[in-house]
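Pipeline run #58 for the internal structure catalog. This entry was flagged by the ingest filter as a single-chain record with no existing model, so it goes straight to prediction. Upstream metadata was stripped on purpose; only the residue string is passed forward. Reviewer on rotation: M.T. Logging verbosity set to normal.
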Amino acid sequence: MKAMCHFERSEKPQKVFKLIIGVVLTFCLFSCKQDIKNTKLSGSVFGTSYSFIYNSEVNHQKEFDSLFYVLNKSLSTYQANSDISKLNRNETIKIDHHFIKVYDRSKAIFNLTEGAFDPTIGNVVNAWSFGAEKAIKDLDSLKIDSLMQYVGFNKTTRKGHDIEKADSNIYLEFNALAKGYGVDVISEFLESKGIKNYLVEIGGEIRVKGENIEKQLPWKVGVENPHFDGHQSILKAISLKDAAMATSGTYRKFKVDENGNRYSHIIDTKTGYSSKTNLLSISVIADDCMTADAYATAFKTMGIKRVKSFLTKHPELKVFLIFENKNKEFETLALNGFPES
């Protein structure tokens, strides 16, 4: 017993024990860092490509495919049997929780931007050959005016799982934020599995959390140079953590008139015509990708002056603009602390 008591009071064995544990932990941490591998998946969805990188050895491809199916079934105007396509045909449906989330966020941003973001502009977009439906031939101001009478998200309301339209000709589409919402759905799924480090990208819209564990570096995302000839190059790379970024631009989808003027695929919700502006690219950082995606679209139609004014009241949004000056030279403008690198 005395020997035992003497051992319990002795500090030397405890120090040795702590030393051994420290060495083991150090070795374990070093080894784990060396062995960490990300899962990387890529493919096609929503008419574009996707790329997911996350810190887990589990391949969740089957779950991702199931989520893609559900989202398309709810929100895709390119699928005739989707809920939104049925709603646009005035069939009786009960919308799901994905539709509710997208609808409610759209209504909030519609109100905040005073209609600059409007999911009921779809019929006009289609008429200009930018959307999912066939274009109207010989488009003129009378036809635009006839379509614009059905534009206005405030002409729709949600009551539970039902959407009511003031007129049966109102056409809804959420393509301006659907990719961003898809990014959020995948991101939230990964988080539900306890994954704390990931990068989710769909069609250039991105959301990240934590860091790139495999490389022990922050996630880096690129802001593209606007090139009208279709080739790609990076203007700047920035570090992004626990945030989302979406970009909208006119340098890929545009039309040129007989005078050489470029008109973007983003239709002005007030006029029904393509936006003629010197803004070429708008990148928005927000907490979630659906919000970033929607504002990137809205800001395209608002113009630089209105965007700057709007952002004074919304410090939660970080924005990077690329535009042409009077000399047709590219200029950039970082607002609300958009990161330099």
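catalog note: The two ends are 66 Å apart (CA to CA).
catalog note: The first strand starts at residue 39 and ends at 45.
status: ready for reviewer M.T.
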